[in-house]
Amino acid sequence: MAAIENSRGNWGSKFGFILAAAGSAIGLGNIWRFPYVAGENGGAAFVFIYILFVVLIGLPVMIAELSIGRKTEKNPVGAFKTLFPPSLWKLVGGLGVLTGIGILSFYGVIAGYTFGYFIKIITGGLSNVVTASQSEEIFKSFTADPFMSIGLLFFFVWLTVMVVMGGVSSGIERWSKILMPVLFVLLILLAVRSVTLEGSGAGLSFYLKPDFSKISFTTFARALGQALFSLSLGMGTMITYGSYIAKKDNLVTSAAFVAFFDTLIAILAGLVMFPALFAMGMDPAGGAGLVFVVLPSIFAKIPGGMIFGAGIFLLLSVAALTSTISLLEVPVAYFVDEHKWSRRKAVISMGIITFIIGIPSALSFGANSFLSTIIAENFGFLDMMNAVFGNYSLSIGAFFIAIFAGYKWGVKAVADELEKEGNVFFYKKAWAFLIRFICPLAIFFILSYIAWTGNYF
Ligand code: TRP
């Protein structure tokens, strides 16, 4: 009851929650990040491990996060504090708050580029793209402009701030409902065009025919990071979102639904990218600019393709927005709940901080040569932030959330929460096994290996 009466607001309905959680999960992680990470890590074999991790690690951790959130009706820090007041567990929530800002700072840059590309297309800026190398030149010169990059980052963070300021159901929910299905349909159409391009076969087999000799331990680390990133796990987003769900809803089916659609969209994005990429003779390990180079070269091969392209980049911006609001919501809920800030003050100050931290990322696609090559020739500041916050921070967070749900708070307490109001906890035993053994052990081995070899990036 309290959830409905308190001032934090609630999702309008179960469907509203699912759409909002799916809106958080589905975003640039699926369409920008998944294809280039898969491309850098051997294609199909990576995809296989990725799907395995979604099921064996992502889904159990998502159920854990949602149940912690719904039980406590709090932000991540407050949630741990409520369950075990004098303990250090709240630091896991604290890491989540920092990670939210860290991810948003670079995510906002890419999201800004997607919106920038929408504007560029409708103003004719891509109309003479014919080949992939022309497309690449355009992306390079676009991102090399510091004012453009910083301006777009500012714009996107501002947009996020505006939506989050509106509160939960009026802001987040309304956006998620309408536009995701449209994006889905456009991606299917693009995938059809991509696989029918001449020479696309090599891309299809790269993407779908696993070559397990290409797997290394790093592949596992990247697949883990990507699974957590794409499902919005490991930093308490789903704790925060779970705090707005009604007790009568079945969390397990909701989580499965979100994980399924998120994975479907990622797979579909790969189906758009790889056939086209091979058809145009590009390198699948081309890095973080991949989607901005490949998509326009597909549009060039569709009659009226640029109109189509404008639609895709606009919807990508919307998909990104439903994700950025979930990233900003975590630190905001923290300051509102724990420090009694007004929502307005929390949203504006977090927005300003994120924007400032995002500036070096915005300058790392060629605008500033130091920032663009800070780790290696093709590995700039944004890539570094992406690895630190988008892989390792989430992996560490997910590790502790699994330990917390499996041992500290305990599987019985999670089950009690999930079985509220007569709900059935499907696969309870399997979940308990995964959260107690598979999740922590797998994450522990992966992180130890990375630390041991020092192969962080
Ligand atoms: N999952 C989103 C995407 O794929 C990004 C995202 C939103 C996220 N909230 C998150 C990633 C929380 C990690 C944690 O685009």
Outline of the structure:
By secondary structure, the protein is an all-alpha fold.
Bound ligands, named by name, code or SMILES: tryptophan
Q: The biggest beta sheet, please?
A: none
- DSSP helix count? 20
What top-tier CATH class fits best? Answer: Mainly Alpha
Q: What percent of residues adopt helix (DSSP H or I)?
A: over 70%
Query: Quick check: average pLDDT?
Result: 92
Instruction: Name the beta content range.
Output: under 5%
How far is it from the N-terminal to the C-terminal residue, by CA?
Answer: 47 Å
Unreliable spans are 1-6
Q: Which outline best applies? A: globular
Description:
This protein has helices at 2-5, 14-25, 28-40, 44-72, 76-83, 90-122, 132-143, 146-165, 168-195, 201-208, 217-230, 237-242, 251-279, 290-299, 305-338, 343-362, 369-372, 381-408, 411-418, 428-453. The protein is 76% helix and 0% strand. It has a single domain, classed as Hydantoin permease (Orthogonal Bundle), CATH 1.10.4160. Helix 3 crosses helix 13 and helix 11 crosses helix 18. The structure holds tryptophan (TRP).
Keywords:
457 residues; mainly alpha; disordered N terminus; binds tryptophan; globular; Hydantoin permease
Task: Chart the SSEs and their pairings.
Layout: H1 2-5, H2 14-25, H3 28-40, H4 44-72, H5 76-83, H6 90-122, H7 132-143, H8 146-165, H9 168-195, H10 201-208, H11 217-230, H12 237-242, H13 251-279, H14 290-299, H15 305-338, H16 343-362, H17 369-372, H18 381-408, H19 411-418, H20 428-453
The structure holds tryptophan.
